[in-house]
Amino acid sequence: MKYVRNVWYPLGWAEDIGRELSRHMVLEEAIVVYRREDGKIAALQDACPHRLAPLSLGKLKGDTIECGYHGMTFDCSGKCVRIPGQEIIPGNAVVRAYPIEEKYGLAWIWMGDPALADPAKLFHIAQYDDPNWRAVKGGTLRIDCNYLSLCDNLLDPAHVTFVHPSTLGTPAGATVPVNNEYGDRSIIVWRWIRDAPAIPLFSKYGKFTANVDRWHYYNYTAPCFYAIDMGSCLTGTIPDMDKRHEGVQMFACHLLTPVDERTVLQHWFHVRNFRTDELEMEAELTADMDRAFNEDKVVLQRIQLEEEREAARGKPYKRIVLGIDAAPRRMRKMIDQMIVEEEQAGGIGAIPVKLETASA
Predict the structure, then answer these.
(1) What is the gyration radius of the CA atoms in the chain, in angstroms?
(2) Which domains does the chain have, with CATH numbers?
(3) CB burial class (10 A; 0-12, 13-18, 19+) of residue 152?
(4) pLDDT digit string (tens) for 286-318?
(5) d(Cα 160, Cα 328) in Å, to the nearest integer?
(6) pLDDT in tens, 139-178
(7) Residue 7: closest CA among 128, 150, 118
């Protein structure tokens, strides 16, 4: 499967990366990760160029990795610095090193051309560092489905009525159409539902007892990053839709890591402008949000199995297209175009580094 490579993907939560070797899969590439003695994170291709033994099975010695098979040792730039019993080190005794940055509690990895790895291109949400908002780590959900299927889901407000009736949806949203706005590498899908009951999540934590005006803005940045703006206000109190911050507002941020063709990691956190000093309720709020995202997981994994079953029979399912599919279809075309542009540019942005066997 082809992927967009010249972007920052979340590798994992930075607090989970320490002075031990760990193996991660990103875009079907195996990567060994560890924290250096100076506190920075290093990431290397997880395969010794001699016999392809995973370096993650070796030992961390200072800031170098000693392969657990024959003792070849690599520094954090990927260069071999020692071969036991051999003074001459071949020039091709190297593994790929990946740029790493830390932001929003996550370690981010650049899978494409390292010369293009600009930290300014990292996912950004202004409210995260705003003292009037509270940022809270969520977690990581592993879903056994193609990442594009999850991308479809996160551009689809219509499903919440039916999949999340106890958390994110109510029957009032079933017939309200969505609006789509398209940028070069971004999409916004949004709608307001006027004078209706609050969704269970905001009824519980926003303490709404009367009808509200509520909104969802699904802010997407290609290929797989989301800041979902959702909130409520008492009916009629915020006529200007651009003043949503005056109501009870939350951004649920979903940062996806494609693992392989049928696996994706969904890293998520939220930032909110309400009850920002009531930290004792955050564990329950996080658990409720996690429950909602697991409801999506159940559906998406079953869809993946059905797609694979139909493909195995040689009769791929012919889907029908609904009006709510406009944004997901545009998203897929956007990603396809990004991949084509990278391939036309050539180099590491299009094709991962392949190991060559080092001479003895």
Answers:
(1) 23
(2) 15-99 (2.102.10.10), 124-340 (3.90.380.10)
(3) buried
(4) 999 999 999 999 999 999 999 999 989 887 778
(5) 16
(6) 999 999 999 999 999 999 989 999 999 999 888 888 899 9
(7) 118
